[in-house]
Amino acid sequence: MILNLPEDLRNKLKIPLGNLVLETNPKQNKIIKEAYANAITITVGDATTEKLLNMGLTPFLQIIDGQEKRVKRPVLESDSITTNLDCKNNAGEISENSILTIKNAFESKPPIRITVDGEEDLLVLPVCLNAPENCVVMYGQPNEGLVIVHINQEIKDKVQKIVNVMK
Prior knowledge:
With 167 residues, the chain is of the alpha/beta class. It is 32% helix and 29% strand. The chain contains six helices and eleven strands. It has helices at 7-10, 28-37, 46-54, 96-105, 124-130, 153-166; strands at 2-4, 19-22, 41-44, 61-64, 67-68, 71-72, 83-89, 93-95, 112-118, 136-141, 145-150. A seven-stranded mixed β-sheet has the order 2-11-10-3-4-9-7, sandwiched between helices. Strand 10 (136-141) and strand 11 (145-150) form a beta hairpin. Helix 5 (124-130) crosses helix 6 (153-166).
């Protein structure tokens, strides 16, 4: 089963699922550190993952694809990774393989890195659905900043409605 992103949903997904912390916000690092300190943290995206690693913070789960804004970039090296997983996920889709890999990640020994062959952008959705409540998911909002999503039932319901449209 592959979930495809319909055209009419693209604009809706540009609306952050959580709190958008602008890149220009002088307190961005402080806000990130506070969120990280108070919850299990998951990052989706190379730039977001790199930002936390450079701050000395190691996310529980990191999802990267070796690209930023669809341009190849060096894959982040990290000695702290305990579990490495891989999946295939095409742009504009959520593959069954990626969903299963995300589910397996939550049963693996952290810190965990999933390296995606393809594109990881939409994987924020299955991450939000499968992450335990009280986790924090961080992902980049292109050219704006970083989104911090506190996982709770309201977020899971909101994301499930989006995924239902993709079926």
